[in-house]
Design goal:
- By secondary structure, the protein is mainly alpha-helical.
- It folds into two domains: 69 residues; 85 residues, Arc Repressor Mutant, subunit A (Orthogonal Bundle).
- Helix 1 runs parallel beside helix 3, helix 2 crosses helix 3 and helix 4 packs across helix 5.
- The longest helix is centred in the last third of the chain and has 27 residues.
């Protein structure tokens, strides 16, 4: 019996990457079955050597899953990324994106993969497609505003998304999440 040339660590890294992409796709799409199909078809279509550099393979799969998720979202609602939404009055909720208040990186991590996952998915379901996509790309994938705007502009004709527009949309989503979390905690303590 021939021994696998891959280390157990490489295989484990590939499996963790697939699970991470599934979680990301499920948050983007709001559907676990669509996310599973997307990740399976993406992984099947990309030639990945699990013994090679797992980070390079993860980056390629991540980019293709993101593109696939945005394509699916666009198919469901072709107008979702067509134009930048009108800006609401400036909010005092967050002056800067870094000032996330009760929505710290640790809190987001718990909401994405911990006990708060159901609450996060319910909240995401209340957002517009663009807001949902901006939030998930920024908060879960860690993309910056410019990369997110570039991803949106693949579906906007003319390309109208800017880093500032994505930043405003992301801040609106963070304010909405902070408000949702505050209301949920108030209800628990009442």
């Amino acid at each position: 019996m021939a021994e696998s040339p891959c280390s157990g660590e490489s295989v484990l890294t590939a499996e963790n990457a697939a699970l991470e992409m599934y979680r990301f796709a499920a948050l983007m799409l709001g559907s676990e079955s669509e996310a599973q199909r997307l990740v399976e078809s993406t992984v099947a279509s990309v030639e990945i050597d699990p013994c090679a550099n797992p980070s390079a393979a993860k980056g390629l799969v991540r980019e293709r899953v993101l593109q696939g998720a945005l394509e699916i979202m666009h198919r469901h609602d072709p107008a979702s990324f067509a134009s930048v939404p009108a800006v609401d009055a400036p909010s005092a909720c967050l002056e800067e994106e870094e000032d996330a208040g009760p929505v710290s990186a640790a809190r987001l991590s718990d909401l994405v993969s911990g006990a708060g996952r159901g609450r996060l998915r319910d909240w995401l379901g209340c957002l517009s497609q663009a807001q949902r996509a901006a939030f998930v790309q920024r908060a879960v994938l860690g993309q910056d505003n410019a990369a997110t705007a570039s991803a949106f502009n693949r579906f906007a004709r003319p390309a109208t998304w800017t880093a500032d527009a994505v930043g405003r949309l992301f801040r609106q989503a963070l304010c909405s999440l902070a408000s949702s979390l505050a209301h949920a905690e108030t209800a628990v303590h009442a």
